Amino acid sequence: MANKNSSSFPDPLLPKEKKEMKEYGLKYAKAIQSQWGNGSDYNSLFRKRRKVFDRNRDYANGTQDTTVYKQILTSLDPNNGDGSLINLDFTPVPILSKFARIVVNKILSRDPYPNLEAVDPLSSSEKNKQKRRVNLQVQAKEHLRKLKEQHGMVLDMDPDEMPESLEEAEILFDTNIKTDAEIAAQIGTNMTLEWCNFNDSTYRRCVNDMVALGMAVTRRTNDPTYGISVEYVDPCNFVHSYTEDPSFDDLIYAGHVKRISISELKRLAGDELTEDDYKKIQKLATRHNTSGGPYDSTYDKITEKYNMGYDEYMVEILDFEFISTDTNYFEEKENRFGNTNFYDKGSSYKEKANSVFSRTPHKLEVMNVYSGTYIMGSDYMFGYGLKSNMPRNMHDISKTNMSFSVVATNIREMIPKSMIDGCVGFADMLQLTHLKIQQSIAKAKPDGLIIDIEGLENVQLGKGGELQPLDLHDIYEQTGVFYYRSKNPEGGFQNPPVREIGNSIRNINELIGLYNHYLRMIRDSTGVNEVMDASSPKSEALVGVREQALAAANNAIYDITNASSVLYKKVCSDIVKCLQILPEGSVVSRLYENAIGKKNVEVLNSFNRLPMYNFGVTVQKEMEDAEKAYLEQNIQISLSQKELDIEDAMAIRSMKDINQAERLLLLRRKKRIAMNQQITQQNIQAQSQAQIQASQAQSQMKAQEMQLESQLSAQELQLKTQLEIQLESVKHEFRKEIETIKAQATLGFKEDDKNFREKLEVLKEEGKDRRIGMQADNQEKMIEKRNEPEIQEDSIDNFNEFD
Q1: Which residues, in sequence order, are bridge partners of residue 359?
Q2: What is the rounded CA–CA span in Å between residue 613 and residue 603?
Q3: pLDDT of 299 strictly over 60
Q4: How far apart are alpha carbons 401 and 574 in whole angstroms?
Q5: Is the confidence at residue 387, as pLDDT, over 70?
Q6: CA distance readout (Å), 789 to 376, 684, 783
Q7: Which one of 496, 531, 639, 708 has the fewest beta carbons within 10 angstroms of its own beta carbon?
Q8: In terms of DSSP H, where are the helices of 542-596?
Q9: 548-582 tens-digit pLDDT
Q10: Is pLDDT at 675 greater than 60 in this prediction?
């Protein structure tokens, strides 16, 4: 892989001061170029891998080179081609691009998002305390509700919003319980990804690269103006140290080759390069501006400076980084007061001889990242030195990582193997079969006739009387009529002189079968079956069979899915570590303070104060369509059976993880079923109580009726007795008066008949008036009795009879 200008890497054991020198970095950059070569060297690793990547991208886009197909199909000279079949449509059949889009869209359909959890002991203990606190609150929920309702006590968590059970609290822990540091890191990471438009742009391009090239690369930059940024890197321009690890965790160096103009080089290099340096660099440029000479200069009135003619020339630069382990020495020294102090002695240390006080050296090996920009093919480099703000693990500050995040599905001899790469041969054969089908269709003849010339009389055979074989061929090609002479050995005619020719497309069925064969081979290689791409759904196919086929397709593309998750996790972990080392008071720090809050930034900054947080990142993905459909089916069944409320269904649908959603569904169903049973029991008790109360009311009404009837009977008997007494008294008065009259008449006190009759009439009238008065009094009493209980009408009838 090395070229004739190969150079070895510099000594990695040199002191830190030596490594920071530009000569060390220049030697390292030349060694990288020597190992990879350049784009103009056909035997270099850089050109070899780029050629494979470019070919795979062409096939993934359906724009591969068709020259090889034209050479194979030319009949006379297969190697050079004479253009005899150039009239065919050589446009590639975009089969591989279809399968590539299916896999990419399958992965991107489940939008990923980072879930950050602090894994350091302090954060874990803090979260455990919070979990125990919530558990205690759930157990004392009823008492807390009484305190709130009766005494108006203000609680940090509303009892009505607490989980109903410990099982529901566990689901709450998995989704909502986070410490202040986790919340700050989560917000900061999501905000950074949103600023970079990572999910919609960079991540999509990376997934496309993993499908087409088998490799994806991103680079994190700490821009002093725009903050932390994640940029896309084309794998074709990426160079790195030798590795067989698809996760690229063992990289020693990495770099990104770019082509820029000399004017852009001036902006990047600043004052590190002189004008004479740029003139020398111009000679290395491969693309130049034809409008003027390389050393012509023009004055720009807008920028108020002279622009050189070579500003538009393009040069190749290499942005490279490498990791080196540096040793820092610390001296433990005892002073005259008996106290022990530690002193930083740098990367070189020499113990002092004959020291009065006790001195003990200690060394700390720290991984550092050095970076710079090398102008390829030259002796110029700029921006070299020890990188600042290197992300480190909070609990192992001796380690760090480069700004590149790289992942591959698999890699062999520095060249990844992609899904598209494994189908190139089948795609070529499918394209050739497609061209053969076109060729067969182009050569198809219309239905014609076979005419025996000797079987016909007086037939003119042209001006000369004869037809040449080529003439017969032209007639057949243009009209479908074939002329021939046919006689048997005896001189007679074997066939009728005129017969029909049924001309079908030759070998069309065999070619179509061959086309379908190579299409099946592509499906078998990619794992994208008919169920996954929904190209030929069958209504009679069982659900289990379709789920099996879908699971097989998911297993086939799992390496791509897993690689995309690993890349996403690497990017988020790198962002979190960079957030923790933001310089206080810097423009970037103030930018994040305005975005996520000053308190959150203070929580994340952990180098200047304790505690320090160590975050573990897990990539969560939304549910697949099949999982959503399965979950929604269960929700609808539970709703139809009244085992869930609308609020429960909304809470379950809001969950992003299928496992947590199913756990919450089971929990809410149990809770709802228990509630329904409790409501049913309460209804039964209420009905029984209502029946008891109704029977009691009925018995009370009967008792009241009987008491009222007895009262009415007593009142009726009393009234009847009073009426009889009054009636006897009136009769007695009448008899007394009659006896008095008889006595007077007997004693001789006779009066005139007239006077006697008048007196008798007067007595009758007076008796009548008394009776009427008594009757009126009795009626008034009876009316009063009727207003209270009803009085039977028998006693009134008896009174009327007496009257």
Answers
A1: 333
A2: 9
A3: no
A4: 8
A5: yes
A6: 123, 40, 10
A7: 496
A8: 543-556, 558-579, 587-596
A9: 777 788 888 888 999 999 999 899 888 888 887 77
A10: yes
How do residues 642-673 score in pLDDT, each as one tens digit?
777 787 777 777 766 666 677 777 777 777 77
According to DSSP, the β-strands at 215-223 and 404-408 are antiparallel
Say whether 177 sits in a helix, a strand or coil: coil
CA distance 550 to 527: 10
In whole angstroms, give the CA distance from residue 211 to residue 274: 44
Q: What is the DSSP letter of 21?
A: S
SS (H, E, C) 289-317: CCCCCCCCEEEECCCCEEEEHHHHCEEEE
Question: Is it true that the peptide bond before 92 is cis, omega within 30 degrees of 0?
Answer: no
Q: Name residues whose C-beta falls within 8 Å of residue 467's C-beta, 6 or more positions apart in sequence.
A: 461, 475, 483
The DSSP output letter for 202 is I
Rounded to whole angstroms, the Cα distance separating 689 from 709 reads 30
What Å distances lie between residue 716 and 323, 711, 722, CA to CA? Answer: 122, 8, 10
Evaluate whether 654 touches 629 at the Cβ level (below 8 Å): no
Angle at 278 between CA 276 and CA 284, to 5 degrees: 120
Helix (H) or strand (E) holding 665, with range, is helix 658-747
- Alpha-carbon distance of 747 to 753, in angstroms, equals 16
Q: Are 316 and 258 in contact (CB under 8 A)?
A: yes
- Mean pLDDT for 96-113 is 87
Characterise 462 by phi-psi region: left (phi > 0), alpha (psi -120 to 50), beta (else). left
Which residue type does 548 have? Q
pLDDT number for residue 686: 85
Q: Are 400 and 392 in contact (CB under 8 A)?
A: yes
| CA 128/CA 587 separation, integer angstroms | 36
Q: Under a CB-based contact definition with an 8 Å cutoff, are residues 52 and 415 in contact? A: yes
Tell me the pLDDT of the chain averaged across its residues. 76
Question: DSSP letters along 507-540, please?
Answer: THHHHHHHHHHHHHHHHHHH---HHHHTSS--TT
In the chain, the amino acid numbered 348 is: S
How far is the C-alpha of 259 from the C-alpha of 64, rounded, in Å? 25
pTM: 0.68
pLDDT in tens, 438-483: 888 877 777 776 766 665 555 555 555 566 666 766 777 677 776 6
SS3 454: coil
* Number of neighbours of residue 440 by Cβ within 10 angstroms: 16
Token pair listed for 60: 């993934």
Is the backbone of residue 70 left (phi > 0), alpha (psi -120 to 50) or beta?
alpha
Can you say how many angstroms the Cα of residue 16 is from the centroid of all Cα atoms in its chain?
46
pLDDT in tens, 183-232: 777 788 888 888 888 888 899 999 999 999 999 999 998 876 667 889 99
pLDDT of residue 485: 65
Kindly tell me the burial class for residue 705, based on how many C-beta atoms sit within 10 Å of its own C-beta (0-12, 13-18, 19 or more). Answer: exposed
Residue ranges of domains in the chain: 261-285+294-401, 662-802
Question: For 264, which DSSP code?
Answer: H
> Residue 212 and residue 423: Cα distance in Å, rounded?
11
